Amino acid sequence: MALQPTSGENQVFYNDVTNQYHLVNVAPDNTKTDLGAITDNGVISAIEALPLDSTTGALITIDSPHHEIHEGESFFINHVDATPTNTGEQSMIAFKTHATTRVHILYKGVASAAAHFHVFEGVGAGSAGGTDVVVYNHERDDVTASTMRRARSLTAARVTTYVAADSTNITGRTTLSTEAIGATGQGQNTTGGDVRAFGELILAADTVYSFAIESLDNNTNTHQIFLTWYEES
Asked: Fewest C-beta atoms under 10 Å: which of 18, 70, 101, 148?
């Protein structure tokens, strides 16, 4: 059985006959040359401590975002607003990032009718409106709090959610992206997702952001915004 079998490199094999680990060179044409048994007890102990797949011997790993969940440094928030009934009405989540923490964020937006999903940067949070909402840790037994702050009052471990009636308190911003969702959108009702290679944003420090859904017609439109992120100091 090989550990991390990669052509052209030395690999560790377990010999079922001698019950020993062997260092084996695997050539590009898959020719194997046994370089001898591993006898160093420290090396053997290190090998046996590795999490290995029982069939292939491959090293079992998890990606960095999954690791951040286990470390208690990954968070999420969900906001649903069923009040929009007119063109231009918006639902949103707004917050201010920490001065020294980098936020790696993914977003998802859903609308029941035609809408635009916006990502705004450098937002101005007005003096009124919005609801103070607690941010949740993905690791439910971990008490680590998010460094995210409420957009207006900068309360720690909070974000601000806005429904159609009070979203006008958010002003002045740079639009990073606008995507069609709902009846006119790709996939008909959803934007965003969980593919970090394409959808992740690393947010600027000490900056106010808003993730918003804007109705494009006068139909009753239920908006849902889901944000998930991990934080690195």
From this structure: 18
Question: Consecutive sets of 10 residues in the chain, 233 residues long: mean pLDDT of each?
Answer: 52 74 76 80 71 66 82 94 95 93 94 94 78 93 93 80 84 88 62 63 94 94 95 89
Looking at the structure, tell me whether residues 128 and 29 fall in a common domain.
no
Q: Which amino acid is it at 224?
A: Q
Only one residue has tokens 């949070």, namely 125
Encoding tokens for residue 111? 């609308």
Instruction: Name residues whose C-beta falls within 8 Å of residue 226's C-beta, 6 or more positions apart in sequence.
Output: 76, 77, 78, 79, 107, 108, 109, 110, 192
Last residue of a domain, one of 61, 77, 109: 61
Q: 144, exposed or middle or buried, with CB in 10 Å at 0-12, 13-18, 19+?
A: middle
